[in-house]
Amino acid sequence: MLVGWSGIIAILMVVYVLRDELQEIPRRMAAEFGLISGAQDGAGQLYPVDSNGHAVIEVMIADKTIPMLLDTGASAVMLGRDDAARLGIAPDAEDYRHRVKTASGVEYMAKVRLPKIQIGNMLLQDIETLISPKSGISLLGMTALSKLDVRLEGDYVQLSPKY
């Protein structure tokens, strides 16, 4: 009987010590298993970070879902040619005149303003966006991220509205 009570007391002590971490379990599991794209709570949206340190965020633009790589090193939101085409954005050749330094060198891109983009329950308006002449994953860069609080929490990134 004494062993049983000792076990119960030990379990209660562990639960008490880990109470903050245990509160995170439901939303972390929801994000991990994709039950919700960007598990949500009062603090914002929570997205898993892969083993390479990348987070892919599903962004709504003009009622279309565009997967975007979260990139705090990108000065602007950047749409690849294919994603831009899905949104009906087709710059002319002469529009690709903005010189941009990228991780792979210098490129010339077109510049547009998106009236709004939605990330989870957060609506961002008037977002300067670059259009790449190349295909590839689109980037969620600082022209959008500067309007949000971005925090890395272990294997997750949390996006919250700035107040």
Describe this structure in words.
This protein is an alpha+beta fold and about 160 residues long. It has one domain: Cathepsin D, subunit A, domain 1 (Beta Barrel), CATH 2.40.70. Helices cover about 25% and strands about 40% of the residues. The strands form two sheets. Strands 3, 4, 5, 6, 7, 8 and 9 form a seven-stranded mixed beta sheet that branches. A four-stranded antiparallel beta sheet has the order 1-2-11-10, covered by helices on one side. Strand 1 and strand 2 form a beta hairpin. It is elongated, with a radius of gyration of 21 Å. It starts with a helix and ends with a strand.
List keywords for this structure.
163 residues; single chain; 11 strands; elongated; Cathepsin D, subunit A, domain 1
Low-confidence stretches: none
- CATH fold name, please? Cathepsin D, subunit A, domain 1
Rg calc: 21 Å
End-to-end distance? 54 Å
**What would you say the CATH architecture is?**
Beta Barrel
Strand content: 35-45%
Number of domains: 1
Let me know the number of strands: 11
- The name of the CATH superfamily reads Acid Proteases
Overall geometric form: elongated
Q: Which CATH class?
A: Mainly Beta
Major sheet description? 7 strands, mixed
Order of helices and strands: HHHEEEEEHEEEEHEE
Question: What is the arithmetic mean of pLDDT?
Answer: 86
